[in-house]
């Protein structure tokens, strides 16, 4: 640990949590595959749930193996997965990214991207707000030209793009 930094989660606890989450995901995949049908039709081939079913089975078996290994591996309960300082660093990126994804639906990808780059440059990079905003606008403009004009791939737009006729 970093100079007395408080341990929040052990490696064993995270191994168990991830194995259980993946086992739950496998159960959902298997259940939905059974609903769709996991058989093989003579004239058509596999039904819709055939391949997802087996992927779910493999994922479930792997999850149970990992869960058993984590349960048996008692020493990993003493090893640190994340400390208080580490989780603060992760959240410093995760929370703004979550806000960015939510903002996409309201203000569009280009404005949200410009603001995201600007705020990261200002907040984490310690650049001036003007410089961050300038770089954010340039990057968003290049992305707009590339996707909307050159490749003709429409991406989520907000009110500003609609005012400009896109």
Model description:
With 166 residues, the protein is mainly α. It folds into 2 domains: 7-78; 85-163, no CATH class. 70% of the residues lie in helices and 7% in strands. Helix 1 packs antiparallel against helix 2 (50-72) and helix 3 (84-123) crosses helix 4 (129-150). The longest helix has 40 residues, at 84-123.
Which key features would you list for this structure?
single chain, 166 residues, 2 domains, 70% helix
Mean pLDDT: 92
Strand elements, count = 4
Task: List the total number of helices.
Answer: 5
Shape: flat
Share in helix: 55-70%
Looking at the chains present, what oligomeric state does this protein adopt? single chain
Q: Termini distance?
A: 52 Å
Order of helices and strands: EHEEHEHHH
Main sheet summary: 2 strands, antiparallel
Number of domains: 2
Order of strands, main sheet, comes to: 1-4
Rg from alpha-carbon coordinates? 23 Å
Structural class: mainly alpha
Strand content: 5-15%
User: Which blocks of ≥5 consecutive residues have pLDDT under 50?
Assistant: none
Topology:
Blueprint: E1 7-10, H1 11-36, E2 40-41, E3 45-46, H2 50-72, E4 80-83, H3 84-123, H4 129-150, H5 159-163
Antiparallel strand pairs: 1-4, 2-3
Helix pairs in contact: 1-2, 3-4
Brief characterization of the structure:
The protein has 166 residues and is mainly alpha-helical.
């Amino acid at each position: 640990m970093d100079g007395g930094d408080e341990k929040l989660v052990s490696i064993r606890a995270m191994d168990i949590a991830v194995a259980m989450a993946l086992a739950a995901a496998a159960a959902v995949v298997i259940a939905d595959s059974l609903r769709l049908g996991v058989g093989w039709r003579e004239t058509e081939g596999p039904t819709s749930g055939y391949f997802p079913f087996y992927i779910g089975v493999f994922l479930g078996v792997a999850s149970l193996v990992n869960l058993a290994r984590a349960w048996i591996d008692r020493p990993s309960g003493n090893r640190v997965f994340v400390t208080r300082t580490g989780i603060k660093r992760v959240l410093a990126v995760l929370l703004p990214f979550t806000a960015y994804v939510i903002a996409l639906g309201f203000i569009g990808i280009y404005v949200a991207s410009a603001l995201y780059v600007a705020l990261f440059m200002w907040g984490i990079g310690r650049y001036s707000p003007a410089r961050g905003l300038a770089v954010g606008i340039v990057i968003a403009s290049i992305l707009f030209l590339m996707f909307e004009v050159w490749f003709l791939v429409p991406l989520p737009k907000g009110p500003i793009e609609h005012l400009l006729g896109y």
